[in-house]
């Protein structure tokens, strides 16, 4: 991690006690940190205890093959004893055919948006040649042959993760695509069908990663494993990456950072922070502002909105807000520098001249410009990918497409209607533009449903 110069806070913040925090108190209010107090490593993606537990599972399946997989999957209640651990393409199609027509339409339209954006990214990466003494030198861009795409289970089904990973693999030209997800429900299986997956592993955790890495039964040995997961998935990915299987990244807890000034709407900022906070107790909502008044107003909104949130989302978001924080910066440039230091997974800009501010930011996974560029819509249905770097790794890596194209050198994600792209200045850092949506929607996969008939607003639209 590169070092940053020390930034001066506004005078009132310099006089504030380090332990005082925000003046607004209550469940959900973010503590206020000085720039010097920001943790140098905000999160460590691989938990040591989870790593040892995952190692035992990976080693067991590596040695015991299919029988070990069945025993482990049964032990962790992924499947019942004697139950099949995979779904065939025919079963995936049956799941899709059994959905109501409106839900079929949602999955199909969102898959089309994701595939279209991924195809545009793929099209931006070209074969290249250059003359050298005595001949030519060049590069060719080709996809991996087999990809394993992980979609978390958890409290809510995540068909979006199936679409984000499998559609992108297909757009990259991957020949074989398998999806893994624990306890897949009908809509998750249907998403795998829409994404043209060759099959589904009905197993999760480290046991799924080990199976995709090794290849067991009908599940092929995968060249790469992509997609978000819990701490055991991340730990297992770190292990198999040392034995010949590529991975997209070691994903830590979800993050959102909002840069706001006195023009930002506190209710909107609060809603977007909570939309990430409810993901996981380890998620990190962060607000960086040139306005102390905005931070106080947002904290008031967090307390109010959190109290109205249903259980168990409320309890999850409450714990996450304890891990989040707010920072008062003396200028927008200093706020940008704080954001670049953290390199958040999701970065929202809610300031005057938001486009100009966004273009100055260098390190992030996905960029959302303006009040109407809701991060939740970007996560579920606009088109750019939600598999994004966390834990500061956005300083050197990007999202899902580049993982399937190991030979690519440099990539930009171009500006779609109503969106903003960042440009890459280093090694293979695809930046992703987010469409401008009209509203924040509900929890879980509700934004996916809202996106089905969504119309994009131009940036800057009031």
Write a structural description.
It is globular and about 60 Å long. Strand 13, helix 13 (354-360) and strand 14 form a beta-alpha-beta unit. It has helices spanning 11-14, 48-75, 89-97, 101-123, 159-172, 186-194, 205-214, 231-240, 266-277, 292-308, 313-323, 332-342, 354-360, 375-380, 401-404, 446-451; strands at 31-33, 86-87, 128-132, 135-139, 146-150, 176-180, 199-201, 224-226, 246-247, 255-260, 284-289, 325-328, 346-350, 366-369, 432-433. Mean pLDDT is 81; it is low at 1-22 and 402-462. It contains 16 helices and 15 strands. With 462 residues, the chain is α/β, with parallel strands linked by helices. Helices cover 39% and strands 13% of the residues. The chain has a seven-stranded parallel β-sheet, with helices on both faces. It has a six-stranded mixed β-sheet with strand order 2-7-6-5-8-9, sandwiched between helices. Strands 3-4 form a two-stranded antiparallel ribbon. Helix 4 (101-123) packs parallel to helix 5.
